[in-house]
Amino acid sequence: MASTRFSVLSSSSLSSAELLSPTGSSGRFSLPSAPSITTAVGPSKPLVRPNIYDRPLNKTRSAEVSASAFAFLFSEIVQYTQKRVGGINDFERRLNTLGYRIGTRVLELMIWRTEGSSKAPKREIRFLPALMSIHNNVWKAVFGKTADGVEKSVENADEYMIIDNDPVVTRSISVPRELSQLSCSSFTAGLVEAVLDGLGFPARVTAHNTPNVDHPSRTTILIKLDKSVLDREELFK
Amino acid sequence: MAIFGLWIINKAGGLVYQRNFTDGLAQLSANEYLVLAGTLHGIHAITARLSPTSGASSGAQVIEAETFKMTVHLTATGTKFVLLTSLAEPHVAATAALQKVYEAYADAVMKNPFHTPEMPVRSDGFDARVAAIIPAS
Known about the structure:
The structure holds two protein chains of two kinds.
Chain A: H1 2-6, H2 16-20, H3 35-41, H4 67-83, H5 88-117, H6 127-143, E1 149-152, E2 159-164, H7 186-199, E3 203-209, E4 219-225, H8 227-236
Antiparallel strand pairs in A: 1-2, 2-4, 3-4
Chain B: E1 3-9, E2 15-20, H1 30-49, E3 62-64, E4 69-74, E5 80-85, H2 91-110, H3 124-133
Antiparallel strand pairs in B: 1-2, 1-5, 3-4, 4-5
Helix pairs in contact in B: 2-3
C-alpha cells in the first residue's frame, strides 16, 4: 500500500524506494548537515544546544511549536502547491501526500512514546478502537485537542467520519469562492490515512467542508475503508 | 459614540479594504474612496516630515473635523489602519479597536495562502473577525 501511495508523485523520476529512504535523495529531504558533528570538531566552541536529532523524543510539553509559525509555513506550502497543480483534485491529492508523510512519523512517534510510558503498550487491531485512538490520541498529539466527533455512514458500511469543528490547520485560511470545493484539511486526511495504513487498515481518506451555523470552518474527514479491512473485521466477530 | 468605517491603506497608498458600519453615510463610489485614501496617504507622508521638534515623527494620528474624526494607526511595515468615528468616540477605544483589527489582519489575512500582499483583501475570515470587533450599528 505504501508504495502505491508514493507513486502519486508521478512527476518525480525518483523510485519509491528512494523516496522512502531519508538518505536516498538529498534534494527531496533537505536534511541540514548535522551541526553537532561540525561544532564538536572545533574545541573552542562548546555545544550549547543539542542537535535536533539528539534531543529526547518524549518531552511532549516542551516540543510544542508556535501555531503562528505553523500557519505561515502551511500558507507557503499551500501557495507552493497551488502553483504546481492543474485542478482541485490534484491540489487535494498533493496536500494529502504531504500529510501522509507526516502521518507515518506521527504513528511511529506515538507508539514509541506509549511504549516508554505505559506498562502495557497496546497495538490496536480492531478498527473501532483504532478510530477512537485517532480521534483522541493522534488529534491530541498533533493539534493539542481531541476531534469533535466520530460518525459512521448510514448509507455505506465502509465509510466512517471524523469531525473537527475548527481545524487548527485551516484556522487562518479563507478559501476564495472560485475554489470553494477545496478543503485544505486534505493535509489532515493524508495524515489520518498514513496512521490507518500503518496500523494495517488500508483506506482512502478525503476531507470535506461541512459548515454549519455555529462552526463555519467545520470539516469532515471521510474514511473509506478497503474491502480487506471489512472482511477481516467480519472474521473477528 | 459610533464607529462609521474602517479603511486599510497599503504602503503604496492604495486602499485595500474599506467597510462601513453605520447606515446613512454619504454614498461614495469605489473610485472616490481610492482617491480619498491616496490623499490621506500623501497628507500622512507630509505630516511625518513636518515635525517642528527634532527627531522622527510618526505622522498624523488623529484628524478631527466638525462631524467626525479619523484615527490612524501606522504599522511597522507601512500599512495604515484608519478608523472613522464620531467626535464623541474616546481616543482609547478607537486605538484599541485598531489594534484588534491589526491583530485580525495578521491572523486572517497575512496567514491566508490565498491573499496576495498589497492587493485588496477578500477574506471571509477577516470580514467575520472585523464584524466581531466592530459591531454594525
